[in-house]
Each structure stands twice: as structure tokens, then as C-alpha cells.
Specification:
Elements: H1 15-24, E1 42-45, H2 53-63, H3 73-78, H4 88-103, E2 110-118, E3 128-139, E4 146-157, E5 163-174, E6 204-205, H5 212-225, E7 228-238, H6 241-250, H7 256-259, H8 261-264, H9 276-288, E8 293-304, E9 313-324, E10 332-342, E11 348-359
Parallel strand pairs: 6-7
Antiparallel strand pairs: 1-3, 2-5, 2-8, 3-4, 4-5, 7-9, 8-11, 9-10, 10-11
Length: about 350
């Protein structure tokens, strides 16, 4: 009888032998299929992650988020922080990245997120504790090989228990057994009808500056002129290996759609795709570069409309929706924006509503 534990019993470098071994080998899978999730289930995500100044600065530098409050102690103190905090985009990406192995590593596409709330600043050295609850599951009528799952996720300071950020997100998740549907449609479900022609304003106005009063004045002028306050941002950022693979791995996001080109070759995208939070952060950085942002507040109705792959260039477009002079400290007012990221073909890839405190004129 052959001792198959003997190192010389099998020549694994022999191509024919190795090919036969692979055909017989059982794959030890990572991630979970759609059928695993049931409404009301609670999940606690390990291993957690320790926020770092290096990680925050790496994220900001790569995504063009250059707000000095997250780099410099003097500006941080002026904004009312206890020290130099980590950037909120980095915090959000880390919290979501930790959840990937349990929720979406199988390769489902990130469809959207809403009710993103930053409850307090986070600082380097904070160890995260992240939990999720399944709030909805449904079959995808457009892609029978996938289901759609919505989770509520919360990131806390592991030591103090303080809530840092919370949100609700929706993903497509591969099914173990495809559902019986017609299989038609696109990345997200739709009703298949042609949209009506858009009703658009004749004029688009841009604010004259970056302060709260500039946005408030532009909205006032737009109402008088039956126009909208909307503008595009000049900067663009082309997706490279660091953005598509490096930043997700730094947040523990191991989803195969960002790292396994072989698996993604036959997928709807045809290639590895960017982490949605990277695409989003780049678009927001373009917008923030044209604003005097004081503090981030909340996000809603974030959606991802098309795939972003290596070599795509992400640009930004902003529409101003509302100004609230009574929200926030004396030195800032709240502005609500709609932000759109679009690619080199002018195709929208991300959209979302954001409320931020914008600095007033000094």
C-alpha cells in the first residue's frame, strides 16, 4: 500500500499529475451564499481592525482627499477635534471591509447604501468592533444566479463601546442554486420600461466660492431664475492597481471581485472591479476640493450604477439641494448635496446624497 503522506509519493510538479489532483480536490470555500442569510440574523465580524494614521493618510492621498483637518493637528484643533482624527471615508471603508468575509466575499455586487451616520470622530489606535443584522432578503428577477440581501451594520470602538458609524447596505449575493427566473436585466433589478425624457432646467449655476454663504447665495439666485445649482469638478483619477486592489486589502476587504481576475473574467463586469467606497471617496474628494468642508454629517441613497474597472477614470458632478444656516456651530452651516461619479464615457457609476457642515466666511 502506498503511503500517500510520503513527500515522494506524488510528484506535484508534474503537470498531468497535478491536473488530476486538482480535478479530485475539494475546494474549501470562503464566504457565504445567499441561502445562508435570513431576516433578523445577527452577525459579529472578526477579526476587527485597528485604525491607523498611516492607513488614513494612505487612503486620503490615494483618493485625493486633502482636507488638512485630517493631516494637521493645528487645523484639527480649530475644527473642534481632540486630536487628528482618521478620515471618515477611511473609517467607513474599514467598517465595511471587515464585514466582507461574512457578507459578500462570494462576489456579489455592491448595489447601494443609505442612512450613513457618523456618530463621533474616530482616532488612530481605535480598535473596531463591527456587527450586522440581516434586514431583508429577496430573489433577483434580473439575475437568477444571485439573490439580494440588505444588512444594517454598525461600527463601534471596541474598548469604549461608543458608536462611530452606522449604515444600511444592499448587495447581490451568489446563490448556491440559481432561481427560476427569466434571467433578463442589468446589474440591478428594473422594470424593463423605457424612461420618460428628462425634465431639466435651462440654466445651471455654480457658487462663486467655497463657503456656506456662497452655496446659500447660489441657491437663492437659482430659485429666482428657475435654475439649478449644479457643476462639475475638473479633477479626475484613473483607477490603478493600488486603488482597485491595494486600498481594499488595507481595509480587510477580501471580496474576489477586487482581487481575482481569473474568477471575474466570465462575470458581468469581465474584469476585477473597484471597491465602491474607493470610487465614492474619489468622487467626494473632487467635490470637497471645491468646498470649505468643516465636518461630515450623513449620507443617504448611495447607489452604484455601473462597473468601475482598472483603467477607468472617475470624475465628479455635484448638485446643491439645500442650505440650513441653523444647523451646526456658529462657524459653519449645513449643506445637502447630490454627488455623482462618472467615468471617461460620461456614464454615471455612483450617486448619493450628502449633508456636510461647510465653513462660513470669516
Amino acid at each position: 500500500m502506498t503511503d500517500w503522506s510520503d513527500p515522494d509519493a506524488i510528484d506535484c510538479a508534474d503537470e498531468d499529475a497535478f491536473d488530476a489532483l486538482l480535478d479530485r480536490a475539494t475546494t474549501r470555500e470562503k464566504g457565504r451564499y445567499f441561502e445562508f442569510f435570513a431576516e433578523g440574523d445577527d452577525l459579529s465580524h472578526d477579526p476587527g481592525l485597528r485604525l491607523s494614521q498611516h492607513g488614513s493618510e494612505q487612503w486620503m492621498g490615494q483618493t485625493l482627499n486633502h482636507d488638512p483637518a485630517y493631516w494637521r493637528s493645528d487645523t484639527a484643533r480649530e475644527r473642534g477635534f481632540d486630536g487628528v482624527p482618521v478620515h471618515p471615508d477611511y473609517l467607513l471603508a474599514c467598517v465595511m471591509g471587515i464585514t466582507v468575509e461574512d457578507l459578500s466575499e462570494k462576489g456579489g455586487y455592491f448595489l447601494g447604501r443609505t442612512d450613513v451616520e457618523f456618530h463621533r470622530p474616530a482616532y488612530p489606535g481605535t480598535e473596531l468592533a463591527v456587527t450586522s443584522r440581516v434586514v431583508d432578503t429577496r430573489t433577483s428577477s434580473s439575475r437568477p444566479a444571485y439573490g439580494i440581501v440588505t444588512w444594517e451594520t454598525e461600527g463601534r470602538d471596541r474598548e469604549t463601546g461608543d458608536r462611530l458609524v452606522s449604515y444600511e447596505r444592499t448587495n447581490m449575493v451568489p446563490r448556491r442554486e440559481p432561481a427560476a427566473t427569466d434571467g433578463s436585466g442589468s446589474m440591478a433589478d428594473g422594470d424593463g420600461t423605457d424612461p420618460d425624457p428628462p425634465d431639466l432646467p435651462e440654466t445651471l449655476l455654480a457658487p462663486d466660492g467655497a463657503r456656506f454663504e456662497d452655496f446659500e447665495s447660489a441657491l437663492s439666485r437659482a430659485r429666482d431664475e428657475n435654475a439649478a445649482v449644479a457643476y462639475r469638478h475638473e479633477r479626475g483619477r484613473t483607477m490603478d492597481d493600488q486603488l482597485v486592489a491595494g486600498l481594499p486589502l488595507a481595509t480587510l476587504n477580501t471580496a474576489r471581485q477586487h482581487h481575482n481576475r481569473d474568477e471575474m473574467a466570465d462575470s458581468p463586469s469581465g474584469d476585477i472591479v473597484a471597491y465602491g467606497d474607493v470610487t465614492r471617496s474619489i468622487a467626494l474628494a473632487h467635490a470637497r476640493s471645491d468646498e470649505a468642508t468643516y465636518r461630515e454629517r450623513r449620507f443617504a441613497d448611495e447607489r452604484f450604477h455601473a462597473f468601475v474597472t482598472l483603467g477607468d477614470t472617475v470624475y465628479g458632478f455635484t448638485r446643491v439641494l439645500d442650505c440650513d444656516p441653523d444647523s451646526g456651530p456658529d462657524r459653519a452651516g449645513a449643506v445637502t448635496f447630490e454627488h455623482v461619479a462618472f467615468n471617461q464615457d460620461s456614464t454615471p457609476v455612483y450617486s448619493g446624497r450628502r449633508t456636510a457642515l461647510i465653513q462660513r466666511q470669516q
